[in-house]
């Protein structure tokens, strides 16, 4: 259950209708000012044909070219009807909404999909850091880790494999934070986050980011 599943399904819903899709993407909806195909190809790891296919699916699901948070949550519920997705979808939405406009446009959507599906380990971790940095101040606190871990617990529910050492989401978050906070100053910087995760795969698994968010 995760972000890659959601946006892959959303992005691949439509089939390409050649001229119409090309014209739509080159001209696009004025309201959201999307990028042209060539610009998006340079900004992502998708080919022109892939961009067009993803755009077709995106447009079918989001005719205005913008996805607000309520719509995003509804889409998450549609793909994962048995899960409690509310909080998790909220945080993922905030991570995708790079310009903090309160809506996700096609550029933000396709760039997020590119990182999650084809990004390097460091690019994926950068995305994960942005997810955990809820208030976008450039650092992650113990409470922020707890908020995301709690959302993941709610998302997985009874589907989560039991971990006897994980008595609660708060204990889980505390252990993760202790490992990430290298200098014990009460916050986790971007450098600390990346350095620790690249050196310790167990941290990544404990974060439930690359296993849960990306699958």
TrEMBL record:
GO terms for molecular function: calcium ion binding. SUPFAM superfamilies: EF-hand. Residues 84-119, 120-155, 168-203 form the EF-hand domain. Coiled coil: none annotated. It holds the Pfam family EF-hand_7. PROSITE patterns: EF_HAND_1 (PS00018), EF_HAND_2 (PS50222). It comes from the Eukaryota. Keywords: Calcium, Metal-binding, Repeat. Belongs to the recoverin family. This is Putative kv channel-interacting protein. It comes from Rhipicephalus microplus (Cattle tick).
């Amino acid at each position: 259950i995760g972000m890659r599943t959601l946006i892959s399904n959303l992005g691949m819903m439509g089939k390409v209708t050649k001229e119409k899709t090309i014209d739509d993407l080159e001209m696009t909806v004025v309201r959201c000012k999307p990028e042209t195909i060539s610009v998006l190809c340079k900004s992502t790891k998708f080919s022109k044909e892939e961009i067009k296919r993803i755009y077709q699916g995106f447009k079918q699901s989001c005719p205005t070219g913008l996805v607000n948070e309520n719509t995003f949550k509804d889409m998450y519920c549609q793909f994962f009807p048995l899960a409690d997705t509310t909080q998790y979808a909220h945080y993922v939405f905030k991570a995708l909404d790079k310009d903090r406009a309160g809506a996700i446009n096609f550029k933000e959507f396709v760039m997020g999909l590119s990182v999650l599906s084809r990004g390097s380990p460091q690019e994926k971790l950068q995305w994960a850091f942005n997810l955990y940095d809820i208030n976008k101040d450039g650092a992650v606190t113990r409470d922020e880790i707890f908020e995301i871990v709690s959302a993941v617990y709610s998302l997985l529910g009874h589907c989560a494999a039991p971990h006897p050492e994980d008595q609660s989401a708060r204990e889980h978050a505390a252990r993760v934070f202790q490992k990430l906070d290298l200098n014990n100053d009460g916050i986790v910087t971007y450098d600390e986050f990346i350095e620790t995760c690249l050196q310790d795969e167990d941290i990544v698994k404990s974060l439930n980011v690359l296993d849960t968010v990306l699958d």
